[in-house]
Amino acid sequence: MLIASSRAGSHPANLQGIWNDKTAPPWDSKYTVNINTEMNYWPAEVTNLSECHEPLFQLVEECARSGKNTARQHYNARGWILHHNTDQWRGTAPINHANHGIWVGGSGWLSTHLWEHFLFTRDIDFLRQRGYPIMREAALFYTDFLVEDPETSWLMSTPSNSPETGGLVAGPTMDHQIIRSLFKACIAADSILGGRDGFIDTLKNMVPRIAPNQIGQYGQLQEWLRDRDDPKNTHRHVSHLWGMHPGTDINWEDNPELMQAAKQSLLYRGDDGTGWSLAWKINFWARFLDGNHAYELVKMLFRFVDNGSEGHQKGGSYLNLFDAHPPFQIDGNFGAAAGIVEMLLQSHLTYIDLLPALPDAFENGSLAGVCARGGFELDFGWEDKKLVQVSVLSKVGGICRLKYGQKTIDFETVAGERYIFDGHLVMQEK
Q1: Which one of 38, 108, 266, 349 has the minimum C-beta count within 10 Å?
Q2: 258 contacts: CB under 8 Å, gap ≥ 6
Q3: Are residues 219 and 331 in the same domain?
Q4: Side-chain half-sphere exposure of 223, counting CA atoms within 13 A
């Protein structure tokens, strides 16, 4: 589906991919960038379809040009900004209602896709010529936009909102997670490119001042700067968990207490939701290393939905397996595909983790041609829920760190060479 709807020279896949059959489609068949457009491209790198990412990069570059005018006119700020939605004409100004239209995280989130492309491919030329310039200008906007909270002295994002719930607020957690991740990515990118950008000192000084993730009165990860979460809220958006997926700052190794709080938030939200919300939750539970829970959501995503149904709960699939919001949106298809891979392979930390969230239902299986950060392509199989063999192709060389269960190994690789291991991560041949 991604191959068919996103190729070099085309527009990116929109809310319906390319399969809109209406003159007045739901949400105008545009690009909603507070989750949906990004989710369309979650499988691009990991499923070895990196070239299908290109139309999104072109959209980001075009929005960066129009977004400079929006940043200057609306905020008297440098850099570029994209709010929650854009279209074929690359509009970047806030539109629609205040509870979602004023959100300022679109440019930051989309910029991380260019960074992820580099992490998977290690394409230095791409980073230098396209990735870093876009990331830098997005970060520049936030350095002008963030303000100091008079009560805590933290830097906070305002005015904004937590998509698409809670109204206009100061300090939504999602914004802070995105901005902090973008700043860190810029710092890392500059180091890779030679460390000559003086702007990086500004980012280094601001990162520790951005409002941190906080645990609220119910043991939840707070969605806002103030502790105002409602444990009865089952809204389809789970925006404040961005920092654990697709972000990486919240993880079991570095801050298990925040992971536990994020899990509590997700339990309060509940499993059900729109098709794309179910897909996001598959990825969350994979990051929680709970494959059985993730698999239950996979099954929910295959619930039959009658054509013509609409609503914000009970997502599933139509008879043709297109994702049902309902109505039809393609993001759930792409997000679920990425989530299933996430159950079987993760590489967002410092190593490639094999079968991290394998459900009981996947007793035997194999996966071929999937990619991991660092420039590696893997084939692997398992029987009786145990790894049998793994093949690692190094595309660019360098050290590969491989993990299965409690064992982690490091080995030096040469570009173009393939390395074979048994189920105990003992090298068999090269």
Answers
A1: 349
A2: 213, 215, 221, 243, 244, 250
A3: yes
A4: 26
